[in-house]
Amino acid sequence: MDKTPSCKRRASPWVIALFIILLVVAGWYLLFPVLGLTLAVTAGVWGVIIATIVVLSIAILFFLVFSGVGAIILAVFAFLWGLLAIILFPIIFPVVVPLLIVLLFIGFLLRRKR
After folding, report:
1. Where would you find the membrane-spanning parts of this chain (predicted)?
2. Most Cβ neighbours (<10 Å): which of 17, 25, 31, 83?
């Protein structure tokens, strides 16, 4: 058996997800100072940031462990919560978007497996 790697290998979804995350976060950090935006972050905003990260992480964990309707409902809730948090508090954009992209790719991979 010849084990030479083929030249026509497709990029795995994880590589694509990491590339999208890198582009979005780098673009956000480059665009933010160019627009002259400054934000003062208070304790309430930090609470929303931490809650958003926790909810998205739990949704990702449930997506990997369970495959029921409850995991899908929690994932949809976490996705909507993340979008709302990004709209209300744009400073957490580079933190939440990678979690949302990972959540979408896990859902895509699990749906493709079935």
Report:
1. 12-31, 37-56, 61-81, 87-110
2. 17
Task: Please give the structure tokens belonging to residue 49.
Answer: 């940031």
**Number of domains within the chain:** 1
CA 4/CA 97 separation, integer angstroms: 37
Query: 67 lies in which domain range?
Result: 13-113
For the question of whether the overall pTM of this predicted structure is more than 0.70, the answer is: no
Average pLDDT of every residue of the chain: 72
Give the side-chain half-sphere CA count within 13 A for 44. 3
Q: What is the H or E stretch that residue 84 is in?
A: helix 69-88
Is residue 5 situated within a structural domain?
no
SS3 state of residue 26:
helix
* pLDDT tens track for 26-67: 777 777 666 665 555 666 777 777 777 787 777 777 777 766
